[in-house]
Amino acid sequence: MATYDLRSRKLQQQNTDRADMKESSSNKTDTSKLSFADEEDKPMMSKSADIKIFGRSFNSTIVATHVNIFLYATCFWIQTGALPYLTKKLGVDMVVFGYLQTTFAIVQLAGGPLFGRFGDLFGGRAAMMLAFASASATYLFLGLADSFPLLFISRLPSVFMHAMQAGQMIVTDIGDKQQRAGSLGMLGLSYGLGMVVGPFIGGLISKYSSEQTAAFAAFTGSVLSILVAYFFIPKTTKKVTVTSTIEEKSSSVFDFKKIAKLVMAPGALFLLTIRAAAGIPIGVFQSMFSVVALETFKLPPEQNGYILSYIGVLTMIVQGLGVSILTKKYSETSILKWSSFSLIFSYLALAFVTDVQQLCIVIAPLVMGLASSNIVISSALK
Question: Is Cytoplasm a UniProt keyword of this protein (predicted)?
Answer without folding.
Answer: no
